[in-house]
């Protein structure tokens, strides 16, 4: 009986935590929000130019633009000569450059060596699906 009570408390605690996480990832659905998953750093130029064009076209309706870099290419994210031009292009506070934590671990990249302007998500694919549920338009390159 005591174990059943403990399991019930644990389940309620976990469910409460899941609700809290879900509430934290809500974005303004009245705006146009975008997410791109890419496996190649050089594609960032075209992606960021597209973000710029969308920002101009959408005007005040432009919301968030997230780019998640996944796969073996995360090895290049610590090479400042390679990544700096893209960081400069992504100056807007609405454009977020993110690394896939799963890929970082798989390919042995130390997240603390990433540029300070980059964020890390635990799993890029899952993050993409979560944002799609929140109304983000998505593409994978």
Automatic annotation (TrEMBL):
Keyword tags: Signal
Extent of the signal sequence: 1-23
Superkingdom assignment: Bacteria
Protein name per UniProt: Sulfur reduction protein DsrE
Organism: Flagellimonas okinawensis
């Amino acid at each position: 009986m005591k174990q059943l009570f403990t399991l019930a408390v644990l389940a309620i605690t976990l469910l409460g935590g899941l609700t809290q996480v879900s509430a934290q990832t809500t974005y303004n659905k009245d705006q146009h929000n975008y997410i791109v998953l890419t496996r190649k750093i050089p594609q960032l130029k075209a992606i960021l130019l597209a973000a710029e064009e969308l920002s101009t076209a959408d005007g005040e309706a432009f919301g968030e633009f997230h780019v998640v870099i996944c796969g073996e290419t995360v090895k290049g994210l610590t090479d400042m000569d390679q990544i700096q031009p893209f960081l400069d292009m992504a100056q807007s506070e609405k454009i977020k450059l993110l690394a896939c934590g799963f890929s970082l671990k798989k390919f042995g990249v130390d997240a603390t060596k990433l540029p300070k302007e980059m964020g890390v998500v635990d799993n890029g694919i899952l993050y993409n699906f979560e944002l799609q549920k929140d109304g983000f338009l998505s593409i994978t390159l």
